[in-house]
């Protein structure tokens, strides 16, 4: 594996105060909530609000003497309107903690509403990095999908319709007070959502493991959320990739396999811990405008882009992709590093196919006439493009889109 000298000496992680992981560990929620709240706001979506597990959680919290209010209207891709609605509805009722339970949008909504309620401002004031002025209301995150890592990240991604794009609110103040990760809550997750979130987690791990290594000065660390690949994020990436290498096939074969569900959810947590410091890169920057145009899932969008982003980045990350090939048992240790790297990329693509992720952009509904617009919009996501190990330009992004549209899985050129 990569030596410390090869990737820099700084190791940094941002993480919640407490993380509880394991089947059935939602049992701790009533005690956790009672310790920080008298009036709890629960943020979720309509599907989860109708689940028996959700109703049991709310009842158990109320039995501890905590008043519970519920917002069950969270929408996918977190539209800004959701934030405005929650702030208007609950801004003057004395909420002193928020529980975000559901997929990434539910947890992102909880995190960003916590700072909006605390400071009485518009979420637009916080678009960007390090613009939140101080701590928000304490947040407990409970994921019901295995993929986004939002339970441990200190960023919320908001879709602003007027701007026509997704915008990140990135600040250490968005970090959850506690994350409770219970794999039993993923068993009822629809197969398509299970597949899409798995593709998202896999993309997180690959992008962060192959991210740019940055020179992190005290001033840089004080102003930026994403500070690059480092020894601590690599630990999480290696562990997450190892887990997904076997668990994805088992989850697809038997969605009720709680051990496989647990391994996949643990991998998603590892991915969340990695991206929270290192950040995602080209696949995520390019997917955002594609998703806005095609209304396709985020997970399948980044998964479909990943083969072409990996090929683009290969010339600058042969060592890292070779390490992935060896880690996943796909590469022969006696082969040349480039052959090992290609084997690693092929294994990642095999895992994407396992969950049914498309490996081309035509399937997403993208048209060649959209390429220039998508490239322009992707270049605006500088907090992501700055993490990519190989420099991105509008021209290089258009080239990635052309290859992805043509399903060109050749090795291009080094």
Automatic annotation (TrEMBL):
<feature type="domain" description="Fe-containing alcohol dehydrogenase-like C-terminal">
    <location>
        <begin position="194"/>
        <end position="403"/>
    </location>
</feature>
<dbReference type="InterPro" id="IPR018211">
    <property type="entry name" value="ADH_Fe_CS"/>
</dbReference>
<protein>
    <submittedName>
        <fullName>Iron-containing alcohol dehydrogenase</fullName>
    </submittedName>
</protein>
<keyword id="KW-0520">NAD</keyword>
<feature type="domain" description="Alcohol dehydrogenase iron-type/glycerol dehydrogenase GldA">
    <location>
        <begin position="16"/>
        <end position="183"/>
    </location>
</feature>
<dbReference type="InterPro" id="IPR039697">
    <property type="entry name" value="Alcohol_dehydrogenase_Fe"/>
</dbReference>
<comment type="similarity">
    <text>Belongs to the iron-containing alcohol dehydrogenase family.</text>
</comment>
<dbReference type="InterPro" id="IPR056798">
    <property type="entry name" value="ADH_Fe_C"/>
</dbReference>
<dbReference type="Pfam" id="PF25137">
    <property type="entry name" value="ADH_Fe_C"/>
</dbReference>
<dbReference type="InterPro" id="IPR001670">
    <property type="entry name" value="ADH_Fe/GldA"/>
</dbReference>
<keyword id="KW-0560">Oxidoreductase</keyword>
<dbReference type="Pfam" id="PF00465">
    <property type="entry name" value="Fe-ADH"/>
</dbReference>
């Amino acid at each position: 594996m990569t030596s410390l000298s090869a990737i820099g000496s700084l190791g940094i992680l941002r993480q919640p105060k407490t993380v509880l992981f394991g089947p059935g560990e939602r049992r701790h929620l009533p005690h956790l909530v009672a310790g920080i709240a008298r009036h709890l706001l629960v943020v979720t979506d309509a599907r989860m609000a109708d689940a028996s597990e959700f109703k049991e959680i709310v009842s158990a919290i109320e039995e501890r003497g905590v008043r519970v209010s519920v917002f069950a209207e969270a929408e996918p891709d977190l539209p800004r309107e959701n934030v405005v609605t929650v702030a208007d509805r609950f801004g003057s009722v004395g909420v002193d903690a928020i529980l975000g339970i559901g997929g990434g949008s539910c947890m992102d909504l909880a995190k960003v509403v916590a700072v909006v309620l605390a400071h009485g401002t518009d979420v637009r004031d916080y678009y960007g990095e390090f613009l939140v002025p101080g701590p928000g209301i304490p947040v407990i995150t409970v994921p019901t999908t295995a993929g986004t890592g939002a339970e441990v990240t200190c960023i919320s991604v908001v879709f602003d319709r007027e701007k026509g794009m997704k915008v990140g609110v990135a600040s250490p103040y968005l970090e959850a007070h506690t994350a409770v990760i219970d794999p039993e809550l993923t068993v009822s997750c629809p197969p398509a959502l299970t597949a899409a979130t798995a593709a998202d987690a896999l993309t997180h791990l690959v992008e962060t493991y192959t991210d740019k290594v940055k020179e992190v000065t005290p001033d840089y660390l004080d102003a930026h959320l994403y500070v690059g690949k480092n020894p601590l994020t690599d630990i999480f990436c290696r562990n997450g990739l190892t887990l997904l290498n076997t668990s994805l096939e088992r989850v697809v074969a038997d969605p009720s396999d709680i051990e496989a569900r647990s391994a996949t959810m643990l991998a998603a947590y590892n991915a969340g811990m990695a991206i929270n410091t290192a950040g995602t890169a080209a696949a995520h920057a390019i997917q955002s405008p594609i998703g806005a145009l095609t209304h396709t899932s985020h997970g399948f969008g980044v998964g479909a882009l990943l083969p072409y982003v990996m090929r683009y980045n290969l010339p600058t990350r042969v060592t890292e992709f070779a390490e992935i090939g060896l880690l996943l048992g796909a590469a022969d240790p006696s082969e040349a590093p480039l052959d090992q790297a290609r084997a690693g990329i092929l294994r990642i693509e095999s895992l994407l196919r396992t969950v049914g992720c498309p490996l081309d952009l035509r399937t997403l509904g993208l048209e060649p006439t959209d390429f220039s617009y998508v490239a322009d919009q992707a270049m605006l996501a500088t907090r992501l493009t700055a993490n990519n190990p190989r420099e991105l330009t509008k021209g290089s992004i258009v080239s990635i889109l052309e290859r992805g549209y043509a399903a060109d899985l050749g090795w291009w050129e080094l």
